[in-house]
Amino acid sequence: MSAEYATFGLAPAMRAGAVLADGGYQIHRDFLDFLVDGRPLLYRLSDLDAVSPLASDVPPAIFTEQVRSLLLEAEAPLPGGRYVIYGCPECADLACGAVTAVIDRLTDDYVWRDFAWQTEPDVDLELNGYHGIGPFRFHGEEYRAALHSLLNGHGHAGGRRRVLLIGARVALLAKLAAALRTIGIGADITHDAHEVPDDELRAYGAVAFGATVGGAERAAVRATFDRAGLDVAYVDGLAPIVPLLVAQIEHALDRSPADQRRLTRLVAVDGEAGVEVTSPCRVRLTTYRLDRLSRAHTHEVFDGILETGRHRIALDAKAVRGVSYVVARTSGSVLVEAMPR
Predict the structure, then answer these.
(1) CB-based contacts of 255, cutoff 8 Å, min separation 6
(2) Distance between CA atoms of residues 147 and 157, nearest Å
(3) Residue 243: CB atoms within 10 Å
(4) What is the pLDDT of residues 312-336, one digit of tens each?
(5) pTM score above 0.85
(6) Are 150 and 156 a contacting pair, CB within 8 Å?
(7) What is the mean pLDDT of the chain?
(8) I need a labelling partner for 135 at 20 to 30 A (CA). Which of 149, 165, 216, 217 fits?
(9) Domain spanning 261-341, CATH class
(10) How far apart are CA 184 and CA 17, in angstroms?
């Protein structure tokens, strides 16, 4: 099969972390995804929970090595001239599985071909190849410009993965901070941001307000960040439920372009959840509710593959009784919606 020309680019993406209902968790990862003809390549790979080698938490020397590898300035890490395009978000072990491809030079252009799912050094293309993907031929100038920009310090995947938690319920904030740190998001607790130096403010990608924080206090915090010339996301905590607050913060930290997200819509009304996805993917719906004694209850209400488009999913009446909230997740997106009372 001959390689057709495609455009090449990079865009911020994330693998959403989570505190799971069974007590487990999954790690938050920020990375740069590859755009082929303006669309994330990851979305062409069915429902794959993976990250590219261009991740924010990779040490600078290794990040540079990964970039130079994609530029063919270093030897391929796998036999047959194969390079890792996406790998396990929890570790870098090939045994967990990785999407690999051969990268070639053709005159001045770069060609990505023979995509495959690989768990060991050698690969069987007939058995494990992605037969409907590629080959892609990228104009050399465009390809090198995108990757060289990373070597020049522009467009690195390193987003601001710290959150400033503001509120009076210290015990709840401490539990929330611990949960965030467990999934790889830094968190600090304070009553206000007045005396925080600008250099420290720059580390925060989001500010989360507790329910007891008044309007004047919120305005003062916003003014502090505005004076420092910083654009951060603000989160108004819906309820004192740690996994729900984590989901809200994950959504706030999502800096991927809105038109390139997989999960684009969540509506919760009349005992149903309305969900819209832009490509086939696994979607999980979880409800959280508070009973009359302010005790939290969690219900996993849906977990399955949805095709591109809009879907209506019925919610168990017990799961959305009283004060309740719905969280929709894909591997890279999180949306949160309150059920109307």
Answers:
(1) 12, 14, 30, 159, 205
(2) 12
(3) 19
(4) 999 988 888 888 999 999 999 999 9
(5) yes
(6) yes
(7) 90
(8) 149
(9) mainly beta
(10) 8
- Assign a CATH topology to domain 160-254: Rossmann fold (3.40.50)
Q: Is the torsion defined by CA of 172, 177, 178, 179 positive or negative?
A: positive
Task: Write out the H or E segment, with its range, that includes residue 234.
Answer: strand 233-236
Distance CA 111, CA 131 (A): 16
Q: Which of 189, 304, 300, 177 is closest to 242 using CA atoms?
A: 177
pLDDT digit string, tens, across residues 209-268 = 988 888 999 998 999 899 889 889 999 998 999 999 999 999 999 988 888 899 999 999
Give the torsion sign (CA, 232, 24, 92, 335): negative
pLDDT, tens digit, 9 for 90 and up, residues 96-121: 999 999 999 999 999 999 999 999 98
- Compute CA distances 297 → 81, 285, 322, 329, whole Å: 51, 14, 11, 18
Neighbours of 267 (CB within 10 A): 16
How far apart are the C-alpha atoms of 72 and 138, rounded to whole Å?
A: 14
Nearest partner of 296 among 329, 333, 324, judged by Cα: 324
**Average pLDDT of the residues in 83-93:** 89
- In three-state secondary structure terms, 208 is strand
Q: Where are the domains of the chain?
A: 4-151, 160-254, 261-341
The pair of structure tokens assigned to 173 is 């904030």
Alpha helices in 152-271 (DSSP H): 170-182, 198-201, 215-227, 242-253
Residue type, 156: H
Considering only 15-29, 32-46, 69-83, 116-130, which range has the smallest mean pLDDT? 15-29
Q: How far apart are CA 16 and CA 232, in angstroms?
A: 18
**pLDDT band of 306, cuts 50, 70, 90:** very high
Sign of CA dihedral 265, 341, 21, 213: positive
Encoded tokens for 294: 């302010």
